Each structure stands twice: as C-alpha cells, then as structure tokens.
Amino acid sequence: MIEPMTYEELMEYVPKDFHKFVSDGLSPNQAISRLIDEYELQTDDYEEINWMFNVLLAEIGVRHNCLREEIREEALKIICDKRLITLWKQKRLSDSEISCRTVYLENVKDAVQKLVGLSSILCKPFWN
Questions:
Q1: Which of 20, 37, 93, 112 could form an SS bridge with 97, CB 3.0 to 4.6 Å?
Q2: What are the DSSP calls for 69-91, one per residue?
Q3: Is 65 left (phi over 0), alpha (psi -120 to 50) or beta?
C-alpha cells in the first residue's frame, strides 16, 4: 500500500501539478483527467485525502471554467454532509485548524454554487 499524502501535501502538489500539465500543453479538462489518473492510487484508500482531492478538483474546475458534473456533485456532497469536519474533529485537530479548513470548504461550496447557479439552500451554513 502506498503511503498516504498529508492534507498539506495534497493542497500543495495538486495545484502545482495541474499548472504543470497545462503549461505542458494539456487543456484544463485534460489536466484534471491526468490529475485523477496520477493521484488515484494515493487517494483511493484514504477517505480524508480522497474527499479533499475531490473538493480540490472542484476548486480547480471552478477557477478554470471546466467543472465536471460528477466532481461538482461529489464535492458538494462531501462539503454539505460535513464529513470532513467530523473527521477532523475525530482526529482532534485544533479549533483554529478546523476553522481555517472549514472556511476553505465554504469558499469552494460558494464558488461551485455560484458557477452553476445553484441556490444556497443546497447546504445549510456550517455555523448552524
């Protein structure tokens, strides 16, 4: 089994690899496909990393106007059911770390919903 990436490594390397693939001549959509292929083994067996990978792909998709429906749906499901926040609390991350990560999730959710014109009713705010 491959050693899992950390949250920090995922947040650093995935965007860098995306930009590298695009600078190598791939379209943004092709670059996302390549990310999925390259990171699949490193994310599949690790829930937190797999969930964050999907959220990160949604953010990249929004930023580059190539958000795939299946990525959008999965990312919103992950964000809205608060599974990452629950997991982070179980892992006993600090309140400040959870807060910082929650703001990121909320920003991705808002950007995805804005891009596709969804109502904010899809997810209740995290603070409720």
A1: 93
A2: HHHHHHHHHHHHTTHHHHHHHHT
A3: left
Structure token digits, residue 10: 């995922």
Residue 62 to residue 72: CA distance in whole angstroms: 9
Task: In whole angstroms, give the CA distance from residue 76 to residue 71.
Answer: 8
Place of tokens 């990160």: 56
Distance CA 21, CA 27 (A): 8
pLDDT digits (tens, 9 = 90+) for 60-116: 999 998 899 999 999 999 999 999 999 999 999 999 999 999 999 999 999 999 887
Tokens encoding 25: 């001549």
How many other CB atoms are there within 10 angstroms of residue 80's CB atom? Answer: 14
CA–CA dist 59, 54 (Å, integer)? 9
Amino acid at the residue 125: P
Closest CA to 76 of 97, 94, 61: 61
